[in-house]
Amino acid sequence: MTTRQPSPPAPQASPVPQPIAWGRRAGMSCRAVAASLLFGLAAWPALADDGPTPWPQWRGPHFNGTQLDATPPLHFSEEHNVRFKVPVPGEGLASPIVYDGVVYLLSAEAASSEAMVASQQAAQAKAENQEWPPSVDPVAQSFLVLAYSAESGELLWRRVASQHVPHESHYLDASWASATPITDGTHLYAHFGSNGTFAYSLDGTLVWKKDLGDMETRNGFGEGSSPLLWQDLLLIPWDHEGDSFLVALDKASGEERWRTPRPEERSSWATPVVVDPDGDGEMPPQLVLPGTHRSRGYDLEEGTELWSLGGMTFNTIPSPVARQGVVYLMSGFRENALQAIELRRAKGALEGSDAILFTHDRHTPYVPSPVLYDDNLCFIKHNKNGFTCLDAASGEVRFTEVRLPGVKNVYASPVAAAGRIYVFDKAGAVAVVRNGSTFEVLAENSLDEGVDATPAIYGDSLYVRSRHHLYRLAETVKEDVPAAEVPKMEPSKAAPAEEVEGPAEQGMTDR
User: Fold this and answer.
1) Which 3 state secondary structure label does DSSP give 256?
2) Dist. CA 489–CA 470, nearest whole Å
3) Whole-angstrom distance, CA of residue 353 vs CA of residue 341
């Protein structure tokens, strides 16, 4: 049920492009506008105007799951519209990002595949016997940073950021490489949580590395929050069972610029978002980070807390999305919570304040983040196949808990382009629905492997990380790549010599 909070009339502001409606402004290309809004005018290096808009971070260029100038395929399968399917070494849930024709991935590769399989089988046996938690015990890992050609799938370079035994287990469905990398167009930032944070040039040269310590996650579930860039800062959330904090690193050097405690906060897995509070750049931007105890807004200059609000459920995972100065927070473990917060009114403790535009307490997501496309705020029920869309301005329910055909269990967050919303499930089923005020299924697709990582959209393609492969899904022409001749590269043909950044088994030199 949606509860609308009464509020006084808002002051009139001049209309400006919003993150869900970027186009050309004052001669700027779509990608330039995206860069200026996302990175606070510390924009990406200039690319050809006719090139695709990058998908440079978790949840894409607008941080809401959408790509506004892309045309991915409507229909696909293992035999249809697969431009390439190449093996990915190791395991990971880190989502792909794409910049200037290169796909970047993170992964963790066991030193002994036999030891890894044995640990996973032991965890699976615990799950089948209903023993809790079904955690994968640590085995030695190489933490990998990978770069693939977005055109062909060729592995361009591979770097071993660190090699050691992780200090903590992870849940059966998780991994030791779950945070999505991020780029500003000059450097690539690879965050492995307790296993280190690394900055590389885009040709794979190590620039700096940082050890922030060891997380202690609830029940050894594992880590998952991704970093965020803003101007010259790399922002990293660190919510765990110890002393939680939010830290800002100098993106050029890795030096710590500020650190803000998050009192009483325990394990959460959300990634923060930077929001323009009034939609026209007159107010300073805020960083918003949800939490199991309290969600909070922060000043970006010094990390000062500006406001806080309780009400999320236990195990907060979905990342927030924002539109026209309103940020939408969600969680859905055992209960349901959605809060729409008008940031220009947000100050101090927000309980009972007019900063809360509306709330909703039905069918919110546990793991997948919502997608915000135009004025359509859409999300998955828990991790299941129920689908709900609200009017983002009013909270009015457009449709709720409709069944996505073929889809069962969902960890990957929905992505959207060309008037469509794509939902991938853990078994490889994919539902494509029309973005609109009424529910309409446009296509039902399937792949042979399940998908837990969120796909990236770049130009005419979907880049999909399954458990063991990277797919490029795009319309194919019969004369171009016949379905029977889709390239599937063997590992021996796709792995040039790797570069190890640190001594084996010792990890980072500053650990």
Assistant:
1) strand
2) 11
3) 10
**Number of CB atoms found within 10 A of residue 168's CB:** 20
Integer Cα distance of 375 and 12 in angstroms: 19
- The pLDDT of residue 232 is above 80: yes
C-alpha–C-alpha distance, residues 133 and 125, integer Å: 11
Q: What angle do CA 109, 110, 112 make, to 5 degrees?
A: 145
Query: Bigger pLDDT: 109 or 8?
Result: 109
Mean pLDDT rounded to a whole number for the chain: 87
Structural contact between residues 428 and 466, judged by C-beta atoms closer than 8 angstroms: yes
| The pLDDT of residue 84 is above 60 | yes
For 326-353, write each residue's pLDDT tens digit. Answer: 999 999 999 999 999 999 999 999 999 9
- The structure tokens listed for 193 are 């949580």
**238 pLDDT exceeds 50?**
yes
The string of DSSP letters for 267-278 reads: ------EEE-TT
- This prediction has a pTM of 0.88
Question: What is the spatial distance between Cα 8 and Cα 65, in angstroms, rounded to a whole number?
Answer: 31
Cβ 23 vs Cβ 30: under 8 Å: yes
The token pair that represents 212 in the structure block: 């922030």
Looking at residue 84, its amino acid is: F
> What 3-state DSSP class applies to 243?
coil
If phi > 0 it is left, if psi is from -120 to 50 it is alpha, else beta; for residue 63 that is left
Number of residues written out for the chain: 511
Q: Which residues have CB under 8 Å from 39's CB, separation 6+?
A: 184, 229, 230, 231
Choose among 54, 92, 77: nearest CA to 457: 54
- Band (pLDDT 50/70/90 cuts) for residue 102 is very high
Report pLDDT digits (tens) over 143-167: 999 999 999 999 999 999 999 999 9
Among residues 464, 377, 391, 484, the alpha carbon closest in space to that of 424 is found at 464
| Lookup: tokens for 431 | 């539902």
8 A C-beta contact, residue 385 and residue 410: yes
Which two tokens mark 436?
A: 């609109």
Contact 419/435 with Cβ under 8 angstroms?
A: yes
Query: What CA–CA distances, in Å, run from 505 to 187, 192, 241, 309, 388?
Result: 26, 16, 26, 43, 47
Strand-pairing partners, residue 244, are none
Residues contacting residue 497 through CB under 8 Å, at least 6 positions apart: none
Indicate if the pLDDT at residue 25 is higher than 50: no
Q: Tell me what pLDDT residue 35 has.
A: 43
Beta bridge partner(s), residue 256: 249
Count, in order, helices (H) and strands (E) of the chain: 2, 37
Q: How many CB atoms within 10 Å of residue 219?
A: 14
